[in-house]
Every structure is written in C-alpha cells, then in structure tokens.
Specification:
Distance between the termini: 51 Å
Strand content: 25-35%
Strand order of the largest sheet: 1-14-15-16-17-18-5-6-7
Order of helices and strands: EEEEHEEEEEEEEEEEEEEEEE
Low-confidence stretches: 6-50, 67-129, 357-369
Mean pLDDT: 74
Radius of gyration: 36 Å
Structural class: mainly beta
Helix content: under 10%
Number of strands: 21
C-alpha cells in the first residue's frame, strides 16, 4: 500500500502584449546624457547610450529620400561642397564622423554626426558601444560523485563506521540529543539513553525532510513506533513528496533524492545504515556525528573506541581542525535541542549552508575547550 501526502500549489499565469507603430516623416531626437531616444515622437527607450535601432531606421529613411534632394541646405544632398546640407559641413558621414572619409555624397563634409573626429559610428572606435569578449570554450570542471562506503552504520553503544570505513565510538550523554547527519533539506538527530551505568544507546531517531510538499518530521523508536508530523503510521509505504518511507515491523527505510537510510534493531538495539551514490549531488557537503566522514577526501581516519570514547580523532572542531585522540569535549558541539531541531548553530547544513564564506570557514558560537 502506498499513501500519498501532498500539497497542491496553484500555477501562476502571465501574458505579454505587443504592438507596432507606423512611421511618417522621419524625425529623430536623442537625449545623449542618458534620457530617452525617440523617432517621430515614438519613444525608443530610455537608455544611457545612443539607441542603435532607432539610428539605423533613421539612416534607412534618409536613404529612401536620397534622390529627392529633401534634406539639402546650400548645395543640397548631393551638392559639390555641401554647404549647410546633410552631407556638407557637419554632414552625416562627414570627415571622420559617421562613416569617415568625405560626406554622404558631398565633396567635403565636416566632422559628421555624432561627431568627434574618428569617434563616429563607423569611423574610429564605435560609439557608444563597448563590445565584450566572450570565451566560446569556457572551462568546465567536473565534480566527482562522493559515494558512501558499504557498511556505513551506527549501532550499539554507539559504534560508528564512517562513510570511508572509519571506526570510532561516541558515548555522548544519556538524556541528550545529537545531530547525526545534517545535509540540505534532510537531517537526522538521535536521542541517547542510558544503558547500564556507563553506556548509552540511541533510544529514538528524528528525521526532518523538506521538499516541494513541505516539511515532514519523522520519529522512529527502538520499539518500532513511527510517526510523521505527530500522526502514527502502521506498516506500509508512504510518499512524502519526492521522498518515500517504508515501515515493516521494527524496520524503517527512508529514501530521499540523495540518501537511503534504514533503521532497525541490531542485537535488540536501534541502528542506522547509510547508502548514497553521491552525497554532494545538491552541491552541499553533509555534517554531523556521522555525516562529516562523507567528505570525499579518501582518507580513512581512526578514532577513539571504548566505553569512554567521545569521537576523539574524528570529530571536527569549529576552526575546521580535527579533534585529537583522547578528546572528550568536542562532541558537545553537536548537541541539538530535540529530534527535529534544524536551527542549531554548529555545523548546520539543513538550509543549504556550506559552512564557508569564500575560503574562510564560518565558526559558530561555542567552544569545545
């Protein structure tokens, strides 16, 4: 049986309206200081640069009137010297102006429009355009997938096998809750309980999944009890947006776009097993008691083991360094408020935080010393 829990979002729509405007007798005005350009009173756009489309339209209109002598002053459009005509004196293409050389057809031509001795549209450097050089073959650097080593698990009081095969123990403190895995939109916390006088176990786990449907808070206990958003669920399969869960007795499997995490009893004690083809598929590296071992560096570190071990030699400190063997304080940085706490300060990745700004690591408040 598969149950679907979903949230429906109404799609948004939009429309675009276009129109055209005819042109009569050609006139052109331009605000060269950054205002609007217009052609026959039709606004061609507010711009800090000359409007090239309107200018080219103007030139085409002028060429269509070329043989009519319409714009000439003095000796006219095609006159020998150009007088005050369009192609003389300060003619359209005069001197070192619009197209360089002489006027449009006139004999002399002054400095042309928009001017400036070689700074016109086709003379000298194009004005006011600044072409940008684009590399047609940019370098693309592939990121290798970071998969999880087979057998990655947490079990017993509690024993850890990391993503690259690391072995270490973290006793923690009975009655406290710690972050096990923090990644973008997926988090696992575990509540530790006492076992005898000097050991601890995971009494329950809390998973938070966030996706297109919303946020799901899952609680699973060592008795095989499962609830999602405070709703008790029986054995079966359930769709949680782009994620799924399946409960069968005292076994639970959670599948998200990046992870497959299964929980059950090992020797009567709650355990967690991890699988992933690529923990960095979303561009965010995981953290947490277990999650930080999925760093893809290929280095299998050894950590402290035994009833008093607290992750020394494995756990990362706030400055990015690895705690020394025998360290019994750094584990405190991973304590969270409850099973569904995604707002803890240290090493939180749930909201997509990489833990770095540029190349400098962000140090959260608190100290392991």
């Amino acid at each position: 049986m598969t149950d679907n829990l979903s949230v429906t979002t109404n799609p948004k729509t939009s429309s675009v309206t276009t129109s055209t405007t005819g042109l009569g007798t050609p006139t052109y005005t331009s605000n060269w200081s950054g205002g609007s350009n217009s052609f026959n009173g039709f606004n061609t756009g507010s711009s800090s640069a000359f409007n090239s489309t309107a200018l080219m339209n103007l030139i085409r209109q002028l060429l269509s009137l070329f043989n009519s002598g319409g714009f000439g002053g003095g000796a006219g459009m095609n006159g020998g010297f150009g007088g005050a005509g369009m192609s003389g004196g300060v003619g359209m293409n005069g001197g070192t102006g619009m197209s360089g050389g002489a006027g449009m057809n006139g004999g002399f031509g002054g400095f042309g429009m928009p001017g400036g001795f070689g700074s016109g549209y086709f003379g000298g450097q194009p004005y006011p355009f600044n072409p940008v050089s684009v590399n047609p073959n940019p370098i693309i650097t592939p990121i290798n997938p970071i998969a999880i080593h087979p057998g990655s698990t947490i079990w017993g009081d509690p024993h850890f096998v990391g993503a690259e095969g690391e072995s270490y123990d973290i006793k923690g403190e009975a009655g406290k809750t710690y972050n096990v895995l923090s990644d973008k939109n997926f988090q696992l916390n575990a509540a530790f309980r006492a076992k005898g006088s000097d050991q601890t176990l995971m009494g329950s786990i809390g998973a938070v999944i966030r996706n297109e449907n919303g946020v799901y808070n899952l609680k699973f206990t060592e008795k095989g009890e499962l609830s999602v958003n405070n709703q008790d669920l029986k054995d079966g399969s359930y769709q949680l947006g782009s994620s799924t869960i399946k409960k069968q007795g005292t076994n639970l499997t959670i599948k998200t776009p990046e992870y497959e995490v299964s929980s059950g009893l090992k020797s009567g004690e709650l355990s967690l097993n991890f699988k992933s083809e690529n923990v960095a598929a979303d561009g965010i590296m995981p953290h947490g008691f277990w999650g930080q071992t999925a760093d893809g560096d290929g280095k299998k570190r050894s950590g402290d083991q035994g009833d008093k071990a607290q992750g020394g030699g494995i756990l990362e400190k706030l400055d990015g360094s690895i705690s020394a063997k025998g360290d019994t304080q750094t584990f405190k940085l991973y304590e969270v408020k409850d099973l569904f706490d995604t707002n803890f300060a240290n090493f939180n990745r749930f909201n997509g935080n990489t833990g770095y700004v540029g190349r400098a690591q962000v140090a959260a408040s608190g100290s392991a010393d």
